[in-house]
Design goal:
Layout (H helix, E strand, L loop, with lengths): L1 H27 L18 E13 L5 E8 L2 E8 L11 E11 L2 E11 L2
Parallel strand pairs: 3-5
Antiparallel strand pairs: 1-2, 1-4, 2-3, 4-5
């Protein structure tokens, strides 16, 4: 009986310490910044942070998906944003994007998880 109580206490302590560790890792884990022009097919599946200037924006026919062409030093990359207002971003604005790099129909894109205006 005493060993069972000790085992339960040790299990609870281990669970609490494990959850606390996961929380701190997720809060303090830093997402790698990549220059827009250095993103390539080998990076598919990675979550990165990058920045660029909006050269074109358009809304999908379903009106829930916004596409932004980002440009930096002559390199372009498509950014896909779900559930955002079309008027929130404009051509010429510089933005910072955090998202997952993916490949769609042979073209690299970032599925944005977070996007912020820089200026």
């Amino acid at each position: 009986m005493i060993q069972e109580k000790l085992l339960v206490k040790l299990s609870l302590i281990t669970i609490i310490l494990g959850l606390a560790s996961l929380y701190f890792v997720s809060v303090f884990a830093e997402i790698k910044f990549m220059e827009l022009g250095k993103i390539c097919k080998e990076d598919v599946g990675k979550v990165v942070r990058t920045k660029g200037t909006i050269s074109k924006s358009f809304l999908a026919k379903d009106s829930h998906t916004l596409f932004l062409d980002l440009e930096e030093n002559g390199k372009k990359l498509l950014v896909v944003i779900f559930g955002v207002d079309e008027n929130q971003f404009s051509k010429g604005e510089e933005v910072s994007v955090k998202g997952e790099i993916s490949l769609y129909k042979g073209r690299l894109e970032i599925i944005a998880k977070e996007i912020k205006k820089i200026r």
